[in-house]
Amino acid sequence: MNDMTPIKTTLKDWETDQEVRWCPGCGDYAILKAVQRTLPEIGADPAKTVFVSGIGCSSRFPYYVESYGFHTIHGRAPAFATGIKLANPELDVWLVTGDGDGMSIGGNHTMHILRRNVNTQILLFNNEIYGLTKGQYSPTSREGTHSPTTPLGSVDRPALPCAFALGAGARFIARAYDVSKDLSSVLKAAHAHQGAAFVEIFQNCIVYNKDVFANFTEKATADTGQLWLKDGEPMLFGKGAKGIALDMDTLSLKVVDVVDGDWQAAGVIVHNVKNRAIAHMLVEMPFGPFPMALGVIYDDPRPTYEATVLAQDAQARAGKSANLAKLLAKGQTWTVDA
After folding, report:
1. Which of 29, 57, 113, 307 could form a disulfide with 78 if both were Cys (CB 3.0 to 4.6 A apart)?
2. For domain 11-233+272-309, which CATH number applies: 3.40.50.920, 3.30.70.1130, 3.40.50.2300, 3.40.50.970?
3. Is 165 helix (H, G, I), strand (E, B) or coil?
4. For 175-207, how does the pLDDT look when each residue is reduced to its tens digit (9 = 90+)?
5. CA-to-CA distance for 196 and 290, rounded, in angstroms?
6. Does position 322 have pLDDT exceeding 90, yes or no?
């Protein structure tokens, strides 16, 4: 958890007087409420909390959270968040972005905040479409997606945000979806992580990409479509009737049947949040043959960027006193007569 003394607040303390303006039925409403409910539970202080966003539907978020906030420019929220954290490491910084803002124009900045390991919570809302600009296909849109910019269907292979994050050196990766009852627990785990915590949140765009995630979020498909991961527990789904095992011949994952609850005999893997190799496999599992991996996928902290920078700065200043006049007079000097 960030180095701050927890305080007592309620959900109302985190609601602003601004009218929440998203399309009726948008998944952003559910995510906003989950965040506002989570903040009191982690003891967050509105006076020490900052929400930073770029451009897109998700980026209206700072207006709706009663804290400090920056609605910045397209794709550059990670640069602002990094500067804020370096200027005042005691602030609790949350970064809100979308699949277009964070994976396209902002992909470079997203990569660097992850590899540097700046102590922030990065929430990427993935609706697989550009919603704010009226439904163009995005970096995460599936092949065959019909949109104003791909009228014949997208031929691009979609980007996988969590795979991108792992490749960039992220030390915390998690997934959830907008209306999930477990979203709050994922947010808490991200906040507890010391370093850049990357959370991909599948979000339903009711207007331009309606129900694109229904094949694993709907009640009828949830049991077989969702694999909720918990550290130290077997990777089971389908009410425990199926599991994920490692195929030793191909060094890849496979779905196995679990008979009479004996998951060990079926070879089901026990989830280890520090296993980076398995994390890579989990985030790249193709949905259909496999369930969607959700929850905390990878969590292996290392020293944060701001802590290292400040320690380096302190070492450089040790035994020295600030004297601007002496610095200016150092080396060659001369006098200019009038």
Report:
1. 113
2. 3.40.50.970
3. helix
4. 999 999 999 999 999 999 999 999 999 999 999
5. 28
6. no
